[in-house]
Amino acid sequence: MQTQPETRVNVFEEIFLVFLGLGTLVGVVVIAYTLYNAYKYRDHDDRKPDEDLPTLGELPTGGGSGKKLFVSFGLSAIIVISLVVWTYGMLLYVEEGPDGNPGDDAIEVDVEGFAFGWDFYYENGVETGGELVVPEGQTVWLNVTATDVWHSFGITEQRVKADAIPGEYDETWFIAEEEGEYLIECFELCGPGHSAMEATLNVTDEATYEEWLEEQAAEMEEEEEADEEADEDEANGDDEADEEADEDEANGDDEADDANGDDEADDANGDDENGDDENGDEETDNETDDEAGDDEGGDVDDGGED
Ligand SMILES: [Cu+2]
Predict the structure, then answer these.
(1) Ligand 1 centre from 202 Cα, in Å?
(2) pTM score, two decimals?
(3) Residue spans per domain, the chain
């Protein structure tokens, strides 16, 4: 496995810590130097009567050739400029994402905001409402838009935020390092249901994710077939034959499901060993191909199952 690219969470934490550290350092130096001078030049009793004290409104004179001033200005400039350059570089990384935009291995999901909820569309055609499921440790690219009014898609714990605007697509990415559930919220006041406009980011391990995607795809296929049959029923009006067909369908699907559950996800797809490496994309591609095949020649599958 290649070295893990940095997550957004890490990048932003690093920026925060560097600013916090430098700010603290500068603050400590400035305050310490002030206190030191206040102590060094404090008033004391054994002051000589002829000592030349500054009077109100008098400008300081002397003090060498402005060396102190030059050093402090120079130091400040170096610190500020390197901070700007470094932060800009970090933010460019956040903008462009790890290994390309999106990289070959990335999972791509279309996100659609509506009043008041979120829909997610996977590459293989799977759709979910209110739940975004992704595997841990993989780059996920989101293509965010909206169907009605302006929304803003955000996952605070993953440091993700993207505008969701009708007719526009805002790309963002994240890598979830730990399994678990995270809150997805809308960050743009969009109507009376805004504060309840939530969804769940569900981060699972790779195998669970693949299994879940398979299940969703299978379910979707079943629904499509059922729809097609319903259409045919209406057209034919032949009840008996249709019922038989339904039974066959149901049996066939159950068997198919068992096969999905027992075997590795790859076999269910009917592709080769590709799925075993970390590369989830090949599987997804194949699934997409299968999907496309099913849509075009919807009867091919039916024939196989009967
Ligand atoms: Cu909203």
Answers:
(1) 20
(2) 0.65
(3) 1-38+66-96, 107-204, 207-305
